[in-house]
Design brief:
Blueprint lengths: L4 H10 L1 H8 L11 E4 L7 E4 L2 E2 L1 H14 L3 E7 L4 E6 H17 L7 E5 L4 H13 L2 E4 L6 H11 L3 E5 L1 E4 L2 E4 L1 H10 L6 E5 L13 E3 H10 L9 E2 L3 E7 L7 E6 L1 H13 L8 E4 L6 H13 L3 E6 L10 H9 L1 E6 L1 H10 L16 E4 L6 H11 L3 E3 L11 E2 L16 E2 L5 E4 L12 E6 L14 H9 L5 E10 L5 E6 L3 E4 L2 E4 H9 L4 E11 L3 E10 L7 H15 L8 E4 L13 H8 L14 H12 L5
Parallel strand pairs: 4-17, 6-7, 6-8, 8-11, 11-12, 16-17, 16-18, 18-19, 19-20, 30-31
Antiparallel strand pairs: 1-2, 3-13, 4-5, 9-10, 14-15, 21-22, 23-24, 24-25, 25-26, 27-28, 29-30
Helix pairs in contact: 1-2, 3-4, 3-5, 3-10, 4-5, 4-8, 6-7, 9-10, 12-13, 17-18
Length: about 625
Amino acid sequence: MASRYHEVYDGWKRDPEKFWADAAKAIDWFSPFDTVFDPNAGVYGHWFGGASCNTCFNAVDRHVAGGRADQTALIHDSAISGTIRKFTYAELKREVIALTSVLKNRGVQKGDRVIIYMPMVPEAAFAMLACARIGAVHSVVFGGFASHELATRIDDARPKLIISASCGLEPGRVVAYKPLLDTAIEMSRHKPEACLILQRDQLRCELRENHDIDYADAVARERAAGANVDCVPVLATDPLYIIYTSGTTGQPKGIVRDNGGHMVALKWSMENEFGVKPGEVFWAASDVGWVVGHSYIVYGPLLHGCTTVLFEGKPVGTPDAGTYWRVIAEHGVVALFTAPTAFRAIKGQDPKGEFVPKYDLSKFRTLFLAGERADPETIKWAEQKLNVPVIDHWWQTETGSPMTINPAGLGLLPVKYGSPGVPMPGYDIRVLDDAGHEIPRGTLGNVVVKLPLPAGCLPTLWNADDRFRQAYLDEFPGFYKTADAGMMDEDGYLFVMARTDDIINVAGHRLSTGAMEEVLAAHPDVAECAVIGIADAMKGQVPLGFVVLNAGVARDSGAIEAEVVTLVRERIGPVAAFKTVVTIKRLPKTRSGKILRGTMQKIADKEGWTMPATIDDPAILDEITAALKGRGIGL
């Protein structure tokens, strides 16, 4: 079908308030809004001022009342424990109400904070919805985060209660959560009143008397007593949650999400951007601890009346590189949203895609990739093996939903490899030079968004309006700074090349490490890669490449490295001064799959560095250090 994108985007530009007022009709409000947008409220304005609503009501209760009571709402597929649990909308409502009653009996009320420190279990979603039901503000902290990181979040959010579990499951190991939680509470100045602990059979834990509550017992008691808790009306502008993202100062930034704008933006995105209809099965293979898990495992699909998949496993190793295809086939998934890292891992283990034809993927329509740059080679591999559109898109924890995408629901536009698509309604994206002037199309610069930010974006940081202004608004007055570097082409497609700190300056030439990574990834033997800039006395900086080879590659790594260097010289030119590639077994990554380029650069430049709190496996940094020393780098 012909795409309606330009018509819809132009309609938003002509009359932003009408666009968002129309989108808001898809949400049930307890009382209507006085203003669609009030530019005089908050730091840069507020959406849907005066309205009252409830996110849990829109995600659960209205579907039970509206004919979806017996439809599956949530599928928990644990590839690690080999179990599958399903909950209809009616069952979801019962679970959420029982847990809400537990919270209420512990004195949790509207405006109180609750930290959720959970593995990938359905109870994590129940906890989010239970907080939303009574207007408590949840802050999900990625399960297994180190005690220090959890403690900083406890001190910033000051929760009345913490909901956690005895353990999380990783391939080949069980992660004990309770000791991490207890240590974090010891370290923190703020002390929560109690902890609600889900005991998992894989590793149970000791509960502290008069402080720790057994989750299953407490919920079962409320269920047996026939507890009923109605949804509490909150203002559209009241906070739904806080999600912490790392700050440059070491103090994490508490990104606030409001109730009204968040619901309107997510509900609109499910059909128009992701092309998914109510009743269909949507799977975001992320973690509830990250923004993707908030937006597209829990809230987006449930607001839209979909069935959502909550997956506990990895793309490879649980048990093999066919796991994703098994989940899609078994549950009838129509759209998958995951990180490019996951696909690079699958491609590295199964370069020929031999697992794909073993599964019935007939219902599967679209693959969405986001979270980092999707290199064209990975996209082409996925297109070829899956025979469906592969849609790269771009957004941030701060925005809560895509800023740019190729909108499947409005009709796909031509794909441009390397571009995460075109701006969505609400986003007037510009590219500026460092002095704040707009630069010509096709020129690399700072990607910014003209204020105001649309519905669904952060209104501010938790208790830190000044920090919000300083971090996002001060550098380019009138614009939100994304801290990404990129360019816009003649057709309005954005190309996000790197974080602004991943632009390297080689002898006065500003070069994108992302563009070099695209070239490395194009080599047939390369599974994954990263490029960083390291200090050079002559040129200021020079690029250094790292490659992980595909499983089964038996060729000499030196020969492959030489071919990769030649490729970069051919495609980017001698100006890149690209001369060194190091073959390694694996790249250091965060648990959400982002490559820790900054830490690698510090090792190579012999700078002081601290172990990143989000690292998946600290031992990888020792491997990197040894590999660099073997090449005379970082000595």
